[in-house]
Amino acid sequence: MTDGWNWRQPDGTVPAYPPPSGGPPAPAGGGASAGSSPWWSDARNDPWRDPRTPAAIVVSTPPPDAGAVPEPVVDPDAPSPRRLGPVFVVALVTALLAGALGGGLGYALALRGGLGPGGALGAVAAEPPALAKRPADSLAGVAERVRPSVVTVRVNGGVGASVGSGFVATADGYVITNDHVVEAAGSSGAATVVFSDGSTASAKVVGKDPESDLAVIKVSRGGLVPVEFGDSDAIAVGDPVLAFGSPLALANTVTAGIVSALDRTIQAGEPGGQVRYYAAIQTDAAVNQGNSGGPLVDAAGRVVGVNSVIKSLAVDEQQAGNIGLAFAIPINQAKRVTRDIIDTGKARRTVIGAQVTDAGRASGSGVRLSAVTAGGPAAGGGLRAGDVVLKIDGRPLAEATDLIALVRKYPPGAVVTVEYRRGSAVQRSSVTLAADAK
């Protein structure tokens, strides 16, 4: 029996050191200090521990002032985060390799195909490709077909020089143009024709009709390709047309437009000079000086008019330019005059057998017959001096020029319906037109 503390070990041996008086054994070897851990936490130095015990639990508690950070807990089964650095490097290397390979292959193929420093661009065909063909009914197809029949007419005469256009009417060399284009030829009648391929040939004036502004010249060359003639009475406002010629001496020019108006009566000519009359086809196709005498062609490539005159804001005719108001002589009239010139050397003019004056300034007021030729067409139709002609074949008349120009449009022997006013009564009559006696 002791004072309450039995410090013998269970096998009866005495430990090498006695425990402190009044308490459990002091910690040894850096164990926990008193008060910071239970006394039994130092199991290895426990004097009462049975040395034959196969296992012992050791709890090591760091001192409060150690400041150690607990080791992070890592789940070994969790997936590791993906790193983008390696992926970017692999992609960059792949792109560089692909670019180098493509560039090398392209360079090798270029050298193999003959493209090197100073080489030609594009593939080299075995044979040059044929010129692309356009549909025959397209504007380009029409231009290709008509252009070889269009010529440039140059005249150098004693009264000056001029440049205009014309077109082949027959295979043996007759060419239609304007009278004012060959006017400078004078009595010699000499002219030069330039074809679309640049070749030239001499020509001579066969005949002309100054009042209708038409002329025919003969080219010293055979085997030419004539144009195809259309019907100027069959066209309508709004129909597409092409104008051919050499505006401002620019050969092989083609412009496009529409028929803007029909039977636009024209009185042209220099003051004191020849006065020209015709009922024209108006078009907005670009026409300038030098287009005169060239063909106006419909969408099928048929000639429907002869380009002749333009309207301009310029006072001086030499400074006149296109403003979308051009006028062509109807081809039906041009063909008739051309045939007369080829057959007889001169053209017949169609007349109504009366002298006319303006009846008034009001629109549609008509023209007054100041005199009627005895036995002439007007007299044969029952017209008398003083009658006011209002319409011819339904076309209203406002000025004396209108009657003259419209009558010139018809061939001699044509029958027209004349609407006229006598006093307050409006009447109609049929008049058979005739050729003048000149």
From TrEMBL:
Residue stretches of biased makeup (Basic and acidic residues):
43-52
Q: Which domain of life is it from?
A: Bacteria
What residue spans carry the Pro residues bias annotation? Answer: 16-27
Q: Which GO terms describe its molecular function?
A: serine-type endopeptidase activity
Q: Which Pfam families match?
A: PDZ_2 (PF13180), Trypsin_2 (PF13365)
List each copy of the PDZ domain by range.
341-422
Xref: SMART domains: PDZ (SM00228)
Sorted alphabetically, the keyword list is: Hydrolase, Membrane, Protease, Transmembrane, Transmembrane helix
Question: What are the start and end residues of every segment in region (Disordered)?
Answer: 1-79
Gene Ontology biological-process entries: proteolysis
Q: Where is the composition biased (Low complexity)?
A: 66-77
Q: Which family does it belong to?
A: Belongs to the peptidase S1C family.
Show the PANTHER family listed in the entry: SERINE PROTEASE FAMILY S1C HTRA-RELATED, SERINE PROTEASE HTRA2, MITOCHONDRIAL
Q: What is this protein called?
A: Putative serine protease PepD
